[in-house]
Amino acid sequence: MAILVIAEHDNSELKPATLNTVAAAAQMGGDLHVLVAGAGCQSVADAAAKIQGVSQVLLAEDACYEHQLAENISLLINELGKDYTHIVAAATTSAKNFMPRVAALLDVAQISEIIRVESADTFDRPIYAGNAIATVQSLDSIKVITVRTTGFDAAAAEGGSATVRAVSMLHNAATSAFVGAEIAKSDRPELTSAQVIISGGRGMGNGENFALIEKVADKLGAAVGASRAAVDAGFVPNDMQVGQTGKIVAPDLYIAVGISGAIQHLAGMKDSKVIVAINKDEEAPIFQVADYGLVADLFEAVPQLEQQL
Amino acid sequence: MKVLVTVKRVIDYNVKVRVKSDNSDVDLNNVKMAMNPFCEIAVEEAVRLKEAGIATEVVAVSLGSKVCQEQLRTALALGADRAILVESDEILESLTVAKLLQKVVDDEKPGLVIMGKQAIDTDNNQTGQMLGALTGFPQGAFASDVKVDGDKVQVIREVDGGLQTVSLTLPAIVTSDLRLNEPRYASLPNIMKAKKKPLDIKTPADLGVEVKSHTRLVKVSPPAERKAGIKVASVEALVDKLKNEAKVI
Ligand SMILES: Cc1cc2nc3c(=O)[nH]c(=O)nc-3n(C[C@H](O)[C@H](O)[C@H](O)COP(=O)(O)OP(=O)(O)OC[C@H]3O[C@@H](n4cnc5c(N)ncnc54)[C@H](O)[C@@H]3O)c2cc1C
């Protein structure tokens, strides 16, 4: 019995989502191996070897894995995966891209975005924008699983001493090519791992006004998020969208500014520890999930908030 | 080039679903159903490719019970040329849907398959990618821009860090994200015209695919409810609560 966890990384750093995934995998029971597939990613493998509970790191390095192209990575995991009971990855856009391909190649189901491990073959996962939780039992011999990282505390990043083994399996489907990327650079914490998030919605009015909440974010060391409406309107880029079909977050503090609280938005943030809503409409549904609601014009309240922090 | 576009019948996105009291599933009795919003975006993209002279024919496919014809008629009203329903009353898991679609792809030989990235009922986000693996086609998942250029398609993808551009060799699969386009509404004349467009019905047996369960739904539970909070009167009161009561700042 061994479990293969797929590392999330950018070829230089291991992403924290991997730690939550390892923690979820540990609850499934079995020896834990981590696959690091990429190019020039030895440092990632070294970091993965230190994760508590991991016994082996498999390192697959080739140019064709550099950008995590689903066509190539899925073939690699398909070959390696036959020796495992579970193949587990964080539900990031990268793994969501290649994991279903792995499942189909292995002729098994994928259980998406689990939030709890009930047993080695039974898992809880939200459906219908989190308005119901399904308990699903896998009937397959190999379980392909993506993990909603907010459902699991991170495994310790230090303390382990796994061996690193190079695997020289080359799978280049040669049907896809990476052309380029526009990756947002920010000094703020990443949305999915931030302790504090302040998000703006359509009520912000335009992109420039996001400066108001950025100032609050700077004081709180917070990440900045947004509703779909704010992204669709072009106020902010797509990687800031929180919700059913954007990022799922669960910080200690989530401040929703000028966001009405549609179910699709709530699906992405209602597991936050403390929720604050600032909205001028006292009937806005966001107040039904907010621990602290302030009925106010955001253009007055947000600058005041910044001053008082 | 022929474009195949897939359409799923799901609960209307404005409806908040309830769990049945026996926890066997969610209650879909008398609930408004509609085309999955991501499938609407997929249909729109296919129709735009036809309007741009890139697609020669748009074929809409749905899989499920007889009532899915409604959503196929909607796709036809939005501009698809013909439709195929793979009819089954059984629960069709994503892998089965992908296998059925693989057979439809074998028959139809589309240059591009456009699908929604996710259905808002199961929230699985997997069928397009699974079809990619079964057909061997490359995929542009979570697409916000699609440009066909000769025997390639360039897709801009919404990823966690921002945007990624990939170039895929056709035939390929694209799954739509929210920013791909803004779907049109069907006009009344087009709704009338759609009634006369061809809609073929096939069964999984016709396609030679066994409907198999890879999972068992043990139970469905309501999510944990949040305790009702309070309204604060001022920013001062808010800051005080966050510091001294919630202790989060
Ligand atoms: C398939 C699908 C997927 C979706 N996925 C997501 C998702 O992942 N994430 C998401 O967020 N949405 C998603 N949505 C969209 C969702 O349904 C809502 O449309 C969206 O969340 C609304 O954003 P909003 O709250 O910013 O805008 P609105 O609903 O327009 O709310 C704006 C709010 O701002 C308040 N306001 C305005 N001016 C001020 C002011 N001066 N001061 C204080 N308050 C003010 C208003 O009172 C109002 O409550 C999805 C929808 C669909 C169909």
Distance between the termini of chain A: 52 Å
The string of secondary-structure elements of chain B, in order, is EEEEEHEHEHEHEEEEHEHEEH
Assigned CATH class of the largest domain in chain A: Alpha Beta
CATH topology of the largest domain in chain A: Rossmann fold
Assembly level: heterodimer
Q: Name the CATH superfamily assignment of chain B.
A: HUPs
List keywords for this structure.
heterodimer, A: alpha/beta, Rossmann fold, 7-stranded parallel beta sheet, 5-stranded parallel beta sheet, 29% strand, globular, B: 249 residues, alpha/beta, 9-stranded mixed beta sheet, binds flavin-adenine dinucleotide
Task: Give a description of the structure.
- The complex is a heterodimer of chains A (309) and B (249).
- Chain A is α/β, with parallel strands linked by helices and 309 residues long.
- Chain A folds into two domains: 2-166, Rossmann fold; 191-308, TPP-binding domain (Rossmann fold, 3-Layer(aba) Sandwich).
- Chain A contains eight helices and 16 strands.
- A seven-stranded parallel sheet of chain A has the order 5-9-4-1-2-3-10, sandwiched between helices. A five-stranded parallel sheet of chain A has the order 13-12-14-15-16.
- In chain A, strand 14, helix 7 and strand 15 form a beta-alpha-beta unit.
- In chain A, helix 3 packs across helix 4 and helix 5 packs parallel to helix 8.
- The radius of gyration of chain A is 20 Å and the shape is globular.
- In chain A, 61% of the residues are buried.
- The model of chain A has no long low-confidence stretch (mean pLDDT 97).
- Chain B is an alpha/beta fold and 249 residues long.
- Chain B has one domain: HUPs (Rossmann fold), CATH 3.40.50.620.
- Chain B is 29% helix and 32% strand.
- Chain B has a nine-stranded mixed sheet with strand order 11-10-9-12-8-1-6-7-13, with helices on both faces. In chain B, strands 2-5 form a two-stranded antiparallel ribbon.
- In chain B, strand 3 (18-19) and strand 4 form a beta hairpin.
- In chain B, helix 2 (69-78) crosses helix 5.
- The longest helix of chain B has 15 residues, at 37-51.
- The mean pLDDT of chain B is 97.
- Chains A and B meet through helix 3, helix 4, strand 5, strand 7 and strand 8 of A and strand 3, helix 3, helix 4, strand 9 and strand 10 of B.
- Strand 8 of chain A pairs antiparallel with strand 14 of chain B, so a sheet runs across the interface.
- Flavin-adenine dinucleotide (FAD) sits between chains A (201-203, 227-230, 241-246, 258-260, 262, 264-265, 268, 279-281, 284, 297-299) and B (13, 37, 120).
- Flavin-adenine dinucleotide sits between chains A (201-203, 227-230, 241-246, 258-260, 262, 264-265, 268, 279-281, 284, 297-299) and B (13, 37, 120).
- Chain A: It holds the Pfam family ETF_alpha.
- Chain A: GO terms for molecular function: electron transfer activity; flavin adenine dinucleotide binding.
- Chain A: Heterodimer of an alpha and a beta subunit.
- Chain A: FAD binds at residues 202, 227-228, 241-245, 258-265, 279.
- Chain A: InterPro entries: DHS-like_NAD/FAD-binding_dom (IPR029035), ETF_a/b_N (IPR014730), ETF_a/FixB (IPR001308), ETF_alpha_N (IPR033947), ETF_asu_C (IPR014731), ETF_asu_C_CS (IPR018206), Rossmann-like_a/b/a_fold (IPR014729).
